[in-house]
From TrEMBL:
The lineage of its organism: Eukaryota, Metazoa, Chordata, Craniata, Vertebrata. The keyword Nucleotidyltransferase does not apply. It comes from Pongo abelii. GO terms for molecular function: sodium:sulfate symporter activity. InterPro entries: Na/sul_symport_CS (IPR031312), SLC13A/DASS (IPR001898). Keywords: Ion transport, Membrane, Sodium, Sodium transport, Symport, Transmembrane, Transmembrane helix, Transport. It is a multi-pass membrane protein. This is Solute carrier family 13 member 1. It comes from the Eukaryota.
Amino acid sequence: MYQQLPADLKEAECAYTLFVVATFWLTEALPLSVTALLPSLMLPMFGIMPSKKVASAYFKDFHLLLIGVICLATSIEKWNLHKRIALKMVMMVGVNPAWLTLGFMSSTAFLSMWLSNTSTAAMVMPIAEAVAQQIINAEAEVEATQMTYFNGSTNHGLEIDESVNGHEINERKEKTKPVPGYNNDTGKISSKVELEKTSGMGTKYRTKKGHMTCKLMCLCIAYSSTIGGLTTITGTSTNLIFAEYFNTRYPDCRCLNFGSWFTFSFPAALIILLLSWIWLQWFFLGFNFKETFKCGKTKIVQQKACAEVIKQEYQKLGPIRYQEIVTLVLFIIMALLWFSRDPGFVPGWSALFSEYPGFATDSTVALLIGLLFFLIPAKRLTETTPTGEIVAFDYSPLITWKEFQSFMPWDIAILVGGGFALADGCEESGLSKWIGNKLSPLGSLPIWLIILISSLMVTSLTEVASNPATITVVLPILSPLAEAIHVNPLYILIPSTLCTSFAFLLPVANPPNAIVFSYGHLKVIDMVKAGLGVNIVGVAVVMLGICTWIVPMFDLYTYPSWAPAMSNETMP
């Protein structure tokens, strides 16, 4: 039976609950989603919250948004629209090695804005691997040609054997296919996951440059799939967790939506992507500006081989189909409705429902479009009558409920619910206020230093713990800290949320890293060295953004009226 407890005892018991859950999340002694159920057991047992109130935290507006997004992702992957977009973007940038790498990074980042990081990496990596293998094969053919010429023989032409590599790529694609789901970055890849080696991994690199090219391709795919997820609220689970937590804790703010998030995060993600491209290009191959930006020169045989592989892969898709067109149209409509709901600089369509402010959210749009995927027919189902006539008796929708279920990440839904339950428990017990009071002496430090410390702390923690677990643990700590030192909570929470995704150092840091590592081109030390540079770039750009273009968007220098129990004071 729920009974009131002394305040200090409730704080201690809630702190113990938080400690137990955080320990299990960090050590993964239990599956993350199973650990997320512990608050529903411990909070009522300790008398902190009644069971009904805890249970209500496990399904919120976030889950409705997730359902709508999964409907879109299911249709995109079912009809291969994602592959068509990726190949088309790579074909547009050309076959110069540096530009080819940028093309892969751009297409991967774009897809990751709307699909899970894991699915994006698993889809693009086999294409990149095929291109890398063709570069190696082309170099071998050049050597063979030169040797034949030197020996006085005649070579009537170069023939690049693509059938064998095509078979190897298909085999590798099957072996690296992730478990269907929206975002598998709920946990770090367990050490028990076997990084399988396929026949193509035993390839002997004829030159160091060939080996470096393969490493470069792998890390470009892994890192850009993570960077792209920063751009939208739905791009990765950490963004969704933060948005739901923030809107729940500060319901009067109404300043954080799809449009506002994209406005401040897109420039940051774009800068990080470009600087990461330059860093990785220089780290593995050296960055020759004259070679990179040359125009009108004859393509070498390796570049022709790359262009041929990409062209053939695109041709295999055939002409764009009706199902792809409908999916693309619904995708564009969803994005436009998200952006135009409440853009900030002009009234959005939500103003049409001024009598019910805040009722229509991004999840409203996601559900509306998501339902259409079950209603719009994809193809007619026909049967042959006894007279031999073919008649239509039913139709198949763009996606079925069974297909949706196979993609729906129920583990993410439970994990996020557990985080919300913990946050509610911290607030109900007074633990959040207690933590804020204890951290208030940090107010004597410069605000930029507090942001830097919290960003570095989160970046380090997320290398060894799952991204959602990390953000779920730190949000109830950083929010009271911001309130205690009279700082706009967004000033600290936005950089920390973005830095939660910077898991670039280890193969087990997130699923995209593990997928590219499984191709056998990389060593752990390669990922650590290259990832450290990308981590530094990411934190530096986030710090730059939070001190420049993000400030006027949310008036970060002023303590807001929507934050609790503080007066509107301007920071010195």
